[in-house]
Amino acid sequence: MLLSLLATLYHVFVPLSFPVLAGMVLRRFKGLDTRPLSLLSLYLLSPAIIFTTLTNARVTANDVGITVAFSLINLLAMWGVAVLLGRLLRLGDAEKSGLTLVASFTNCVNYGLPLVLLAFGQAGLDKAAVYVVLQIVIVNTIGVFFAARSQFSVRKAAQAVLKLPALYVAILAGLLRLFDLTLPSPMWTGINLLADAYSPVVLVILGAQMIGAAPGVWQPNLQKAFRAGLVLRLLIAPLLSWLILLLLGAEPLLLGVLLVLASMPTAVNAVILAEQFGASPKFVSRCILWTTLASFVMLPILLVWTS
User: Fold this and answer.
1) What is the mean pLDDT of residues 194-210?
2) Coil, strand or helix at 92
């Protein structure tokens, strides 16, 4: 069992490591600036993958209901814990916003989907589709709101959300499904090209951010925020997710899939948003690095436990 699990993880991590390593090399030797890539991902590639995923997902009504409920309850629970810790630790506004991003958003697309497919098979991947779509939409709406609050008023943060195309393409995809419509084949080909570029681009950003998160002297408030982010992402998130799924009555396969996805390391999207809106990107990128490294130990244990 353990050898099979290790083999599965090997086949997931090796392919994903290539764009990550490319980003690390480019940042180290060519000084790669990730802000243009962040803009590309946030305003073009992410909307494309939202559209294609929403139009292709096939799940039952019961799966959708439990997944939607879990996504919202888990988000609010993690956000509430992050806000409470931010106040108790007396973090600055930027660090508070960064902490909510670290606590709330997981790398369930680039890291989670391949892992779910290999660990749970196609049935698990089908159940993961709705959760992933919800997370993509949430990251580009509520996630932007969390991050933008460190720079703007609540009103301006809400306006920043409404300026993003992801919200509107999600609505368009829903309307197409509702009325059983489709786009011309050439348009689909173009959208799929953009969607296919999403994963390698954000993984290159992740690699570059890992180099940027190299150890150094930190201010005390960043140290406190970093420790709080690790505890939230690695300990509190799996426990809260498990309890919520039990309360919702999720069947074993759905419970395992959603628990693993909710326990993924901090999403690359978090640092993309932190960069765009000044939500302490240095702290967020370091949390991405260390939660990703820790996941190589934590996730195999979690997979064995849920199998």
Assistant:
1) 85
2) coil
